[in-house]
Amino acid sequence: MSNNHINHKILAPSVHFLAFNLQESDIIKLKANRRRISKDWLWEACDNIVSALMQNQFNIKNYLNLNKEPSNFYVNISNTKSFAPHTKSNKFYIPDAIPLQSKILFKSKLLIIEGFAYPVRINNSYGLWLNIGVPNEVGIEKVDIEFLRNLNPNNCFFAADEKGYSGQTIILTSWLAPEDMRKNNQQLEEIAYECLKNFFPDDYKIPPLNRVGEIFGSPIFQYGLEKELPSSGNIFVCFFRSYKTQNRFYQSHTLLLNLFFYRAQIIKNFQDVKRNSRSLEKIHTKIVGEINSLLKLGKNNTLSKDDLNQLQFKLKRLPFRAHQYQEFKAALNISKNQIDRSIDKYKITLERLANQFEYENLSFLETLINTNWPFYQERIEASILYFENGSRLIDNAVSSIRGQIAIEQTELSSRRLEAQEENDRTLQQRITALGFGLSVGGILSQIIANEKFAPSFIVIKNGDGTVSYPYYYITATVFCVLVGFICAFIVDKVILSFPWFKKG
């Protein structure tokens, strides 16, 4: 692609904004899969864009009948009774769309811009097709390609998606100038790139060219990779070569909205898969970390009482972690099933679109299911398989730890019982030895109670010829007690300590 700046001219440039406020089924209430986006997000985005372009306040809800009972899967919710009589015109390509009209000052010249807002309910979600641009009228003059900057003031179209990816698609369309009609796709690619450069702010990173194709007989260029959405954007540039393209573009507006709705669901659900996979990976890492920390408890292959208490405390957290894990796993499978259903519906809508226009080449729109879906499928199945194996490993580890706790508790109880029995034996042994010593002391005290056994060195002869024993009984008592304790010690430490006595 040439880097030289060329001031291209284009005819009737227009921007189409297709966005969806994707709501989950009422059946799905998983916390892991919920997205906190306002129910009015889409209408607020529409108001901000139209107000920025028209330079006056706009409230699309004044034109909506949100309580309209749907007669089928797809229903237009615009309230045509609220349209001003002069705004009902046949030149708006989608019936019952809310007409928009204003003027833009460009290079000292007022240019008329017009378009429409087409709000719909698709199942329990909402969709919007918003169009604004220079009308294609007889005698319309070519405008400089830099005019496109006026159709996206302050990057309002992409500022609308700051709250989270909602499946928005930007389609820039214009009629080719007569001198560009015979250019090939490689030459038109340069013009398409210049359109994006002028549509976005100077510092905006333009996503890479994804593919080039044809729709309704006119060339179309897609920028941004689906697997990198929403960061890379989702932008198409289509150049009308004939009225056949324009007419079929609007004649098939219902099918195109459905098609882009299913496309948005596929990409959004794949984003859910990536988000839930990251959450699962974090929980998986936490659980494995906690299990590893539990396995490190205890020394010499035994667990202390404190180790067991800590182990039991942490095991109370694992069921909560496992519940989170199972919830995100369920969300992962739900997203996969939703993608499968959306792919099937996308195929059916493509078939209906092909049947509506015989011999129409729709290979450009088939790329999503023929090329991108295998990539999604491979990534999702790999994630599910990985986390299924992780779930089994966690279950086995938790069961193993619980078994270890039971064994350790049994062994700890056994050790406590053995220690208690040993203490009881020791106490009994000492009571026996003490009893024996007291018996010996008692017998000995009876033997030496007679004063005739008193040794001569404690006998005192009085002056009157009598004899007294002032210290004999005290000495005898101390002696008997001492002998009794010596005998108890010998019995406790020597006789009762023999193995044959303990076994007996």
Topology:
Blueprint: E1 9-21, H1 41-54, E2 74-76, E3 98-106, E4 109-122, E5 125-133, E6 143-144, H2 156-159, E7 169-175, H3 185-199, E8 209-215, E9 218-223, E10 235-240, H4 243-251, H5 253-295, H6 305-315, H7 318-356, H8 363-447, E11 460-461, E12 467-468, H9 472-495, H10 499-503
Parallel strand pairs: 7-10
Antiparallel strand pairs: 1-5, 1-6, 1-7, 2-4, 3-4, 4-5, 8-9, 9-10, 11-12
Helix pairs in contact: 5-7, 5-8, 6-8, 7-8, 8-9
Describe what this molecule looks like in 3D:
The chain is of the alpha+beta class and 504 residues long. It is built from ten helices and twelve strands. It has helices spanning 41-54, 156-159, 185-199, 243-251, 253-295, 305-315, 318-356, 363-447, 472-495, 499-503; strands spanning 9-21, 74-76, 98-106, 109-122, 125-133, 143-144, 169-175, 209-215, 218-223, 235-240, 460-461, 467-468. Strands 1, 2, 3, 4, 5, 6, 7, 8, 9 and 10 form a ten-stranded mixed β-sheet that branches.
The secondary-structure element order is EHEEEEEHEHEEEHHHHHEEHH
Q: How widely separated are the two ends? A: 103 Å
Number of domains: 3
Low-confidence stretches: 1-5, 26-33, 85-90
Total DSSP E strands: 12
Percent helix range:
40-55%
* Rg for CA atoms: 46 Å
Shape: rod-shaped
Q: How confident overall, as mean pLDDT?
A: 77
Largest sheet: 10 strands, mixed
What's the tally of helices?
10
Structural class: alpha+beta
Q: Roughly what fraction of the amino acids lie in strands?
A: 15-25%
